[in-house]
Design goal:
Blueprint: H1 2-22, H2 29-49, H3 55-78, H4 84-103
Helix pairs in contact: 1-2, 1-3, 3-4
């Protein structure tokens, strides 16, 4: 159940961050509202995930996968294409997420 909550937390964080970019500094109503609701839901579901997962692992997955997914969304929606260094950095983040999930004994309580 913890990973389901974490997936929802990541998805709503990506939605919130994407809407934040579209809000133009909170000057556009609907994107601003979506950003606030997205972040609120993200933190709520992250808190639920923490009932099942350790905080370090959950936060690493939430932040790491959020970074990668926001970059993918930004490339498609906002034409913000990452350069080679950014892609290498994100590959390292994904590698870290894989290592945590495959080899860490602290991935769950």
């Amino acid at each position: 159940m913890g990973y389901l909550y974490l997936i929802i937390a990541i998805a709503t964080e990506v939605i919130g961050t994407s809407a934040l970019n579209a809000s133009a500094g909170f000057s556009k109503g609907w994107p601003s509202a979506i950003a606030v609701v997205g972040y609120a839901l993200s933190l709520y579901f992250l808190a639920l995930a923490l009932q099942y997962l350790t905080v370090g692992i959950a936060y690493a997955l939430w932040a790491g996968l959020g970074i990668v997914l926001v970059t993918v969304v930004a490339a498609f929606l906002f034409a913000q294409i990452p350069d080679t260094a950014a892609l290498i950095g994100m590959a390292l983040i994904l590698a870290g997420v894989v290592v945590i999930n495959l080899y860490s004994d602290t991935a769950s309580l």
